[in-house]
Specification:
4 domains, 9-stranded mixed beta sheet, Rossmann fold, alpha/beta
Amino acid sequence: MNNLLHVEYGQTGQSSNHNDMGMREMQARAFTERASQYLLIKAPPGCGKSRALMFLGLDKLEHQGLRKLIVAVPEKSIGGSFQNTQLTEFGFFVDWVVSPENNLCVDGSDKGKVNAFKRFMASKDRILVCTHATLRFAFETIPVSDFNHCLVAIDEFHHVSADGENRLGGLIDSLMKESSAHIVAMTGSYFRGDTVPILLAEDEAKFTKVTYTYYEQLNGYKHLKSLGIGYHFYQGQYKDALPTVLDPSKRTIIHIPNVNSGESTKDKHAEVDAILDVLGEVSKRDPETGILHVLGKDGRQLNIANLVDDNVTERPKIQAYLRDIKTADDMDIIIALGMAKEGFDWPFCEHVLTIGYRSSLTEIVQIIGRATRDCAGKKHAQFTNLIAQPDAQDDDVRSSVNNMLKAITTSLLMEQILAPTIQFKPRSQWDGKTVPPNTVIVDDTSAGKKVSQQVIDILNGDKNEIMAALIAKEQVVKEAIAETTPPETITQVALPAVIQTLYPNLTEEEQEQVRVGMLQSILIGKAGGLIDGENLPPDAEVDIGEGNQDEKDESSNKNVVGQQFLKMGEKFICIDNLDIDLIDAVNPFHGAYEILSKQVTAAMLKTIQEAVSASKSQISEEEAVILWPKIKQFKRDNDRDPSLNSSHPIEVRYAEALAFIRKVKQQQMAKQG
């Protein structure tokens, strides 16, 4: 297995420490925006969003004149995150108390819960917890005006969509347009697998955003030191690859493939049995808890929970046991299908092993979040994706190629999410002091270099959303990973199109600033981060761009203090003077190609490239225009036209673009004739 991503964290303890009101770092950041009518909190799983909402909601009830607080969660089990909580003992001004009759995350009919919701709205009670479904059903029976001066909080907000058929999205839209309600939206993954936006751009602009990154959270832990994201490619049946990737000594959640996927054997119970055989021999099932006791092949006794079995008698017992886990030794392995993802809390989990491609980035984020809780004794967390490798003899090779490349791409986006984020700061707002690591100073003081605050906000808060939208362009991404297309196709065609779609109100100049900033972020990440001029090695070979040659030849670093550099090969290049051609040559998905080329044989890599080329989209006029200078340069360098029969995919792409250009020219000449 090869990790595509391995990140080391600082164990600063900052994200876990509490202030004098009992708030962790993320919660305090959200609380500073408590006066906002519409608040969007984007923060990773396990960082305390539930308690952040308690602080916000209680302040709105006690100090902002709101009458009621309604908390909506996607499913009943997550409602437990909002049970009664003592906050005053840590310094807050009031405790969180939900009356039993106002906790609707319990068993019962939809009709009964809607009646309870309506009773709450007519009463003097102030806090209610329910599911998204109960909120939707109740909303259909209550005038929108009844929500005036109420706070509606939506947990796991990525379940909302701007799609007209999404009833939760319609509910939010009505509240914003037809009532004075306040809204707090919280999500650990601001992406949807179906690529439909969560909010329309004009609605999202009304929200105050609080962003707390995965890196901030993990770097601020006390115990967890590192996180890895890796792959293992297999052929045949996945059970044969399990001994390679499954370490019984690591507390692991195994997610078997969906029964409709190509990786599934279509018999989920037999798959569980096969996993158990790899682990050891089942001794017994505990009649009280439903937990399996397995004698491992190394002689250890393993406690294993089977959540794939949906037996109505056994599963509730297992779930009750999992909710009451107190020590690391209480559970070793959990085997699940659709469970143990969103909202599932097992801090001792070290490894999540996911079998088969997952199409939803949200699902990937949630699965990884199961292993990234901070816990004494846990130094490393691991996500492993076990993926079917295409078989050149298989009739369905194209489907396997697609799944394989999509899975790798998704994890490349996770690289953006989990690694240190690049922040942009305008020079006009810089006080001259040392900036935090990986902070880019943007010159907005020179003539013609103005940068709007919206551009800065997008670059600092929305880079992951832009990358997710880019990944939704499947054909472009597959070609980029298989390296059958020049990077300019991504950087100069696909990326600008995404930015224009997401931010139609930006000027062309602002869209270009966002594009360049995105590519700078990627380049900085690939180069290992920014280096301040004063921290350069004494013998560094420095390139500060055009200017005084004597200054460039100076071996001392005294002339570069206050500037920022990237290490490119043996040279340190000033970021202010990065050539636009270098920025445009960045392939965001090149790392995937490197992993691919190391993990599969040359013959298989050729099969993958051929499968991508066979389904290649047509050359667009926009791409042909961009590639024309490259085609002319190729002809000058090689004294011939690029060939469609070349073994080099990029040359083939040039040849296709040249054929397109000639065809268009012939058509124009025919019209003129």
